[in-house]
Structures are given as structure tokens and as C-alpha cells.
Amino acid sequence: MAKVEVVKGDITKIEVDAVVNAANEQLAGGGGVDGAIHRAGGPAIMAECRKIGRCPTGESVITTAGHLPAKNVIHTVGPVWRGGKQGERELLTSCYHKSLQLALEHELYTIAFPNISTGVYGYPKREAADVAIQAVNHFVERNERIKKVLFVCFDDENYQIYKEKLENMTSE
Ligand code: AR6
């Protein structure tokens, strides 16, 4: 089965086939990881985003990775946290599943995810980590071609949460 791991750092520096971006529905760029990816990857990414147009929450689209070491960027739109009863969990699960599906369709087998929705969109970090780990495990158990999934945590809080949760899983 694919290796699921956590690392701390900047996703724009990670050498994988595909890095996932936590975008908005307009694919308009923004702050956080989205801003970092467009800055580091250069204007070719935005040029493709403009051609695509928009991406609904819970869905994913793919573009070039520009100057990034990755081959492609997969842009997904996480849910804005509205208290947890507005389908947030299902939408966040869908972000991970749709991104991995798109990666497979493009023969991209090593994938790095940021902690989608846990910045500006306000999804509680522990809950988001549970959803992310469950969604990824569910997918990789059924899709053997995925070689590696990295959770790239930028902030220390997310890193500690993922480390703890992934360690607990391997010791079960
Ligand atoms: N590498 C990896 N993770 C990062 C990086 C980086 N370089 N920079 C920040 N993070 P956010 P969201 C982490 O706000 O909550 C944007 O403006 C950060 O610590 O980037 O899904 C978009 O355009 C946090 O844990 O994304 C949307 O409008 C995580 O990335 C909106 O924000 C996600 O935080 C999306 O909000």
C-alpha cells in the first residue's frame, strides 16, 4: 500500500509528481498556500486557471506547475467552516478523493497535500486532520498505483496533530 507520511515545510519546495493547492472557487489566487504556489510557480499557473474559469467547492482541477519542482498543480476548493452542519466533512473528503482521482488520471503517483481549509477557511485543525487521513487512507487502500501521499504541514500545530494521528495508526 502507498506510504502516507507527514512532513513540515513549504509545499512549493516538495519534489513530487503533483502538489495540491487550497484554492477558491474563482481560481483567482489569494493568500496562504495559494499565494505561495502562484508566487513560486510563476504566471503560467494563473494563465491556465483563467482558461479553466472556476472550480466548485469539493472539486479539483489540474494545471501546469510552472517553475515548481512538481509536474502539476491540482487545485481543489475546500469548504468554508460554517459550524460543521453544512456538509463541510463531505466536501473536505471530496477534495482529497477528487484530487487523488485526478492525479491517477494524469499518471501522477506521488502527491503532496496542504492542510486544506484549515487557514482562512477556518476548519478546526483536528477535525480536518481526521477527515484528511481517513479520506486518503480510504483512497490509497483501493488504488494501488498511488505510491506516496505527503501531508505537508506549514504550521507547527498541524504538524504535531498529523504526527500524533499517523503514529497512533501505525501502532494499532
Ligand atoms: N506550504 C504548505 N502549507 C501552507 C503554506 C505553504 N507554503 N502556506 C500556508 N500553508 P490557507 P484555506 C498552510 O488559508 O483555509 C486562500 O486565500 C496554512 O498553514 O492557505 O483552504 C485561497 O485563495 C494552513 O494550514 O487555505 C482561498 O481563498 C493551510 O495551508 C482561501 O485562502 C491552508 O490555509 C483558502 O483557505
From TrEMBL:
Organism for this UniProt entry: Novibacillus thermophilus
Family matches, as Gene3D superfamilies: Leucine Aminopeptidase, subunit E, domain 1
Protein's name according to its UniProt entry: O-acetyl-ADP-ribose deacetylase
Domain Macro stretches: 1-170
Top-level lineage group: Bacteria
Lineage: Bacteria, Bacillati, Bacillota, Bacilli, Bacillales
